[in-house]
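Quick start: load a record and inspect it. Here is Guanylate kinase:
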Amino acid sequence: MAPQSGYEDYQSARPMFYIGQHDSARTECLADHQYRQVLNQGFIFATAPITNEHFRKRVEDLKERFIADIKARDFTAAERANPSFSSPTIPTLTDEDTSLFPGAYITSVVGYCSPWIDLYSADPLVASLSRQVLNIEVAYASFCGVRSIIIPGPRADTNEKLVAQYARAIQEALRVASRMTLVVQVPMYREPGLEEESDTLSGPSAYASSEPGSEEIDIYSAWDTWHTIRTLCEYDQRLSAAVRVPKRLPEIELQTRWFAEPVYSLTLGASVFQQNRAGFPSLSKTHQTMINMFMRLKSAPWLLLSDVGPTPEDLAAVAAGSSAPQTPSSPSHKSTADFPSLAEAASSTGQPSAADKKRKSTSNAYFSYLKHLEREQEPYSETETSTLTNFQDWLQSPLQPLADNLESATYEVFEGDPVKYDQYEKAITAAMADWKALNRPSSALPRPGRAAAADGARTIPELVVTVAGAGRGPLVTRVIRASKATGVPIQLWALEKNQNAYVYLARMNKMVWNNKVHLIKTDMREWEGPVAEGHEDTKTITKVDILVSELLGSFADNELSPECIDGIQRHIARPHGISIPQSYTAHLSPISYPKVYTDLSGRVATDDMAFETPWVVHLFAIDLVSQKVPGHARFQQAWEFVHPVRLPFVEDWEAKYDRKKLQTGGGGAMNLSAGLNEHNARHCHLKFVCRPRGVIHGLAGYFESVLYQPAVKSDGSAAAPENTPEPIEISTRPDQIDRKSKDMISWFPIFFPLKKPMYFPQDAEIEVSMWRQTDDTKVWYEWAVEIFVWTGPNSRVKVSASELHSSRRLACLMRWPGPSLLARPPPPLHARCSQSLRHTLRSLAPSPTAFAPLSRLSSTSTLSSSRRLYSNMAPPTDTRPIVISGPSGVGKGTLINKLFNKYPETFCLSVSHTTRNPRAGENNGEHYHFVPMAEFEDLIAKDGFVEHAQFSGNRYGTSKQTIADQTASGRVVVLDIEMMGVQQIQEQRARGGNWQARYVFVAPPSTEILEQRLRGRGTETEASVQKRLAQALKEIEYSKTPGVHDIIIVNDDLDKAFKELEDFIYKPAQGQ
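Running the structure step on this input writes:
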C-alpha cells in the first residue's frame, strides 16, 4: 500500500493547513454521503446550519404576530415603552426545524448559527428573539456533540451600546453550552464596498452605509468590537474569533494585532483570491505572507474556504459520476478527475475553454491551491522544532534557584545551545589574546622547577582562570580550547556546589581534561581563593585573572547573578582582572498578550499570585504595541550591572577585622535591613509611544550581555579608543538577537503581567515604573503602568493607571541553609535553566561527547532537529484518551512501548475488565479488573463500556469509568484495540454517544512488507499468515472511512513513525 496522501515527508518539516468548507447559502445539513465526499476531497471539516428555513419562518411569523397583536390592542406609546412590556418566547425546536442530528460525521462538523439573527439590533424585539435563537441553537448543537459553533458577529461597530448588548448575549450563550467553543465571526477590518449582506430580522437595509462616498475608514473598529466582546465575557477560554480575511490587507500593525488574538479560523472567500495566468485561483504575496505567519502558531487557526463550493449540486454531480456540475449550456469535460489538480494545470497547454474556466473555479482548485501553499512554506528552522513550538506561550512557573541541585538531563539541555557557548569561547579567547598582546601581569606564582611558556623572545606566564558554577563542564572545555588557540598557559579552577555534578566533573577531569583542572566542591561564596600551584604545602592564596560564569536569567539579573558574583569577585585580581560576562542589561516593552492573560485568569482561583509572578515564557502570540520614535525606542533599557564592582564598605570591613561582617538588622534600608545588598537595587521609569489604540496585558522582559570587549584588534595591535573592536555579546531582544547571537535558544523572555488589561487611545504614552528590590535576604520586582494622552501642546492627562504589582511573596532567596552570616550572595545559580527552555527542553543540539579525547571535540556544532524530546515538558494539552489500532504485525505495540518508556509518568494503558479467572502473577486492578459475568453484563446494560468482545467463552471490555479514573489521576490513557472495538465506538457515536478520544491508525507501507514482517516472526503458519493478511486488508480499507481516525501513520521507518505519533499527541486541542 502506498503512503496515504496527506502524510508526505514535507509535513514533518512545515506547518500543516487544516482546511474547512463553508457555504453561506446552505440551509440544510449535508447528508452523510455528502460529508464523506467533502472529507474525501481533503477538507478537515464542514460547517452545518443548526436550524433551517422552517425554523426561521416560525420565528418571523412569531415576530409578525406579536407586532400585529400590539397594534390591535391599541397600546399607547408610554405603555409600549414600559420596560416590563415583555417579548414573545420562542417555542422549543421540533424535528422539522433542523436537519442536524448526532451521527458518524458530527466530529467533523462546525456548527454555524443562523445568519439572519441580529444580536446587534436596536430593536428590542429583534434583539430578544435573536438572543433566544442563539441560546436554542447553541444548546441543541451541544446536545448533538458539536464542539464548536460560529456565530455571525455584529454587522457594524458604531454603536457601543449595541456592541455591549451583543457581548452580553454571547456571555449568556457561553453559560448555556458550558463545554462548547463559541467563535465570533468578525472582519479583519470593515472593508469598504465589501460589507456583509444583512438580510436579518432587522430587515435587509438595517446596516446600509450612511456615508457611501466616504473614503476614510477606521481599520481598528472591528478589533475594538471584538475587544469589547471578549472583555465583557471576561476573557473566557472558550471564546475565539473567526477572522474574515479582506481582499486588501491592512497595515502590518493590525495584522499582528489579530495574530496575538485567539483566532479559531481565517475565513477566505472567493473575493480574496485572484486568478493566475493559468486561470486558477491564487493569493497575493501579502496574503501568502500573512497566512504563513499565522501557521507558525502552536494552535494555528483553521482555514475556512467560504462560498467557493462544493455546493450540494456539485456533490450530487460528482456522486452521479460527472467530472463537474453540468448545466444545459456546458459541454462535457474530457478529464475524468472531479476537479482539475495543480499537476493537470501545469501540464495543460493552450487557452482554457469556457468549460475549463468553470471547472477551475470549483472548490478543489481553491483547496489544491492552499495545499500548494502548504508545501511552499518555509521549512521549520532549527530553532522551530516541534518541541520549541510546543513551548509557545506556555507559562513556566518560577522556582527558587538556590534550593535546587539540577539533574544531569537538565544540564544537558542548556549544554545543547552551541550559540551561547560559541560566544563564550570567543569572549574567553579574545580576553586571553588581549592579555597576551598587552603583556598584562599574571596572578600565578612561579612554580618551582617549571618555566613559563615561551613566545618568541618573551615568556608567557600562566593565567589563573576560574569557572564559577561549572555544572557538567561545558565552559571548562571552552576555556581549554581558548588556551590552546591563543597559546596562553593557564591554571584552571572549576567550582561546583552540586555534589552530583561534582562527581561528573571528576570523571571529565580524569577522562577528558587529563587532570589539569582543579575541582573544588563548594559554594562560590565560600571559596577562599585559588591556591598557587607548587605552593600547596604553604596554602598560598593567589588571585583570579579571568572569572567565567553563566548565571544570567531571562531578565539578566532575575536569578541573582549580581549577588552571586558579589560573593566571589573579591578574588579577581586588581586592576586588570576580567569578569566574563563584563556587563548585562535588562530591557522592557509593553505587549498585548490576550492568550496568556486568559490562561492567568483561569489560574487565579488556585494561585492568587498568578498576576504578580514574573513568568518565563516563549513569547510568540504577542503584539508589541509601542512604536520606535525619536527619543523613545520600542525596547528600552531598564538598568545595567557591570562586573567587577568595587564594594568599599565590605572590603574595608574585611581588611580591618579579617573576617566577614555579620548581617544585622535595624538599619534604614528596605524592611529595616542593614542595606548590605542595596547596591544591587535598581529603579527605572520608561516612556513608550503608541500610535494606534490598543490594549496591554503586561511587560515583556529581555536582556543583553557584553561577554567581553576586546582591546586588541585582530592583527594583535592595540585599538585606539575611537576604533574599538566590536564587543562579543549575546542578546534575547527580538530586534538584536539575529545580529548578536542568532539562533540562541538558551533563554526565553520574561513576562510581567498586569492584573487588569489596560486599554489606551490613539497616540498614547505608556509609562512604566519598575523596581528591583532587596532586603538583604531576598530579591523581588515591583512594577506599575500609567497611560497618558496629550490634550494640548504642553498638557496631558492620565487616562488610567495600574496598581503596584509585587513579586515579593515569590522573591528569590539570597540566604541558604546555615548560619545567618553576612550579606553574602547566594550559591551559583545553575538553576537558571529552571526558568527557561533549559528547565524542560532536552538537548536540541548534541553536546560534546562526554569522554571523547579533547582533540576530537569540534569547536563548532549545530542544532539537531531530529531529536524531539518532550519528557521534561508540559503534558499534552489534549488529555483525551488515545485509541491506537492497526493490523497485526504493523508495529503498533513497539510504538506504544517507546511512548511508555519515554514518558513513564505521562501515559498509561487502560486496565480492561474480564470475566476469566486470574492467571499466575496477575493482580486484580493491575493487569485486569476480574469481575463475575453478571457484573460484566450489568455494565453492558448500563452502557459502561467503550468497547467489549467475547473470546474463548470469556468477556473482555474497556470500562468508561476506569478510563475516567485514570485520566483524573493525571495520566493520558492509551487504548490498544482491534478494528472491531473501533467500529463499536463509532457505532456508539452514531447513536449519540459522547465518549471523546483521539484515534490513530498505524498502517504498513505495503501489504508486501506486512507479509514479510509476519513471516519474519517465524511463529506463524501459512494459514495464520493468510488469515492475518486478509484481516489486515479489511482494517486498512476501514481506516479509509472518513471521520474514523484522526491520523494515519505509515510505519515504514520506526523513528519517523514515532515522531509522527509524538507530534500528533502533543498537538494542542483546537480552541486551546
